[in-house]
Amino acid sequence: MSNVYNALSFLTGAASMQGLPEDAGLEVAFAGRSNAGKSSALNTVAGRRALARTSKTPGRTQQINFFVLDERRRLADLPGYGFAKAPLEVQRRWSALVESYLSQRRCLAGLVLLMDSRHPLTALDEQMVHWCVAAGVALHIVLTKSDKLGRGAASQALAHTRRALAPLGDGVGVQLFSATRGDGLDALRSRIDAWLELPARAAAGEAR
Ligand code: GDP
């Protein structure tokens, strides 16, 4: 089965601003607390089992990993945050890299911020939201693992997160997502399509 994101392939990992690919074309970044379900979401979007596995290999965890879609479009997988045991120095390096990336990257069309639907908007998530707002980066919030919540609890998590972010205006999207069930996949892909200026999908729909 094919979808446009099936063509994604690993380009490079960057541990510093100097290592980033050229700031041209369009980029959509993925961020989230470690274990939020970021790799699973990336793999589900791509319709591939192990695209984002690269980011799990030792040494690459503090890097921004880039995946190319075509000559002008990329996805950027930001290093996960919130490791309880990460040394202060590692946390500082993470903050410096991510904040610089968000504030300086001109080709950045938007950030997909993944949060576990069972405990969204932790302090570090709020810091990410704040950085995006300060840098004028468009934001789309994905509440992951929605299959772990009942229908009522899932819609409550959605409503709670929407309410909390309402002061930021209508521009911030919030949705539920399940990598295991595929719930919310079309909504997430549509958001990324729009940011990457991909042509609208054919009315007949595109196979996953
Ligand atoms: P990352 O650290 O943010 O990249 O998170 P991963 O994608 O590696 O997921 C962390 C854990 O949550 C793994 O054990 C996944 O199998 C699990 N997980 C991720 N997405 C889902 C989901 O939609 N549903 C369920 N039930 N588990 C998920």
List the helices and strands and how they pair.
Layout: E1 9-14, E2 26-32, H1 38-46, E3 64-70, E4 73-77, H2 88-104, E5 108-116, H3 123-135, E6 139-144, H4 151-165, E7 173-176, H5 185-195
Parallel strand pairs: 2-4, 2-5, 5-6, 6-7
Antiparallel strand pairs: 1-3, 3-4
Bound molecules: guanosine-5'-diphosphate.
Guanosine-5'-diphosphate is lined by residues 32, 34-40, 80, 144-145, 147-148, 178-180.
What does this structure look like?
The chain is α/β, with parallel strands linked by helices and 208 residues long. It has helices at residues 38-46, 88-104, 123-135, 151-165, 185-195, and strands at residues 9-14, 26-32, 64-70, 73-77, 108-116, 139-144, 173-176. The chain has one domain (4-204): P-loop containing nucleotide triphosphate hydrolases (Rossmann fold), CATH 3.40.50. A seven-stranded mixed beta sheet has the order 1-3-4-2-5-6-7, with helices on both faces. The model has no long low-confidence stretch (mean pLDDT 91).
